Amino acid sequence: MRSRDPVGMRPRWQTALGLLIVLCAALVTPLLPGAAPGAERDTRRRPAERQADRDGMVAVVERYGLHDAVVLAAMRAVPRHEFVPDVEQPLAYADTPLPIGYGQTISQPFVVAEMTRLLQLTANSRVLEIGTGSGYQAAVLAQITPDVFSMEVIKPLADEAAARLKALGYSTIQVRHADGYYGWLEKAPFDGIVVTCAAGQIPPPLLAQLAPGGRMVIPVGSAFAVQDLMLVTKDKDGTVRSQSLMAVRFVPLTRLDLKPQPR
Ligand code: SAH
């Protein structure tokens, strides 16, 4: 981005003007979203890159029959390559889940799109995600509404995702390291809850934190098997309905307090 012209070859006034501009830019840059310290040096922090790849990914999602304009625009905007490890860069826009470390995966783009669509979010929705992972799904949600809360049980993943989202300018997303089974009571109720890890049953605290008129999308079934993607709705009068929509395969929802304790 910096000019490679040797400064000595320019007239003096141009050099002075250039210095003034650089100085102003240096003062303003820290105030801009996405301008986290070090962001400039990281050559991968270029969200605008790979738009053609992203458009190709969205075309695949559309071929599945998903035509929700809001969701497609969100998927077109989020730089998925920023959320996957270096070794997976060639596959960053393939319609496939990818490993993100700690035995976890970033979901297949179509599944992210479909789960987002099922929530039927508006710009005023408050949404909770269980299973931050890379932060990709949270970023897709944040393209639609600023009120995104995301919980992750593995601390390094929570920390990395929070830093990544901040560096990319997703400043309104709040990430919390905790067992998402219990939800986030202080921020409840939520118009949408999306669970991106498989639960044996619908966690009662999440159901309680769903607002009347709210929608929850959650894979339910045994760990390491195929699960049912369930849509759970709560009517205005509090009546809960659930329906099974499709077979999916997610990593399990693990419970912090149920892990074997060291002796
Ligand atoms: N949504 C993520 C992918 C999620 S993978 C993305 O877009 O990248 C599922 C994630 O759920 C993993 O990171 C896993 O550590 C997390 N997880 C599992 N059990 C959890 C729990 N009880 N509370 C919060 N997160 C949990």
**Ligand inventory:** S-adenosyl-L-homocysteine
What is the residue-mean pLDDT, rounded to a whole number? 86
Shape: globular
CATH superfamily: Vaccinia Virus protein VP39
Helix content: 25-40%
- Total helices: the number is 7
In the sheet with the most strands, the strands line up as: 5-4-3-6-7-8-9
Could you say what the CATH topology is called? Rossmann fold
For the record, the CATH architecture stands as 3-Layer(aba) Sandwich
Largest β-sheet summary:
7 strands, mixed
Class by helix and strand content? alpha/beta
Describe this structure in words.
It is a single chain. This protein is α/β, with parallel strands linked by helices. It has one domain (51-255): 3-Layer(aba) Sandwich (Rossmann fold). It has helices at 12-28, 51-63, 69-77, 109-119, 136-142, 155-167, 204-208, and strands at 98-101, 104-106, 126-130, 147-152, 174-177, 190-195, 210-220, 227-234, 240-248. The strands form two sheets. Strands 5-4-3-6-7-8-9 form a seven-stranded mixed beta sheet. A two-stranded antiparallel sheet has the order 1-2. Helix 2 runs antiparallel to helix 3 and helix 3 crosses helix 4 (109-119). It is globular and about 45 Å long. Mean pLDDT is 86; it is low at 1-13 and 15-44. S-adenosyl-L-homocysteine binds next to strand 2, helix 5 and strand 4.
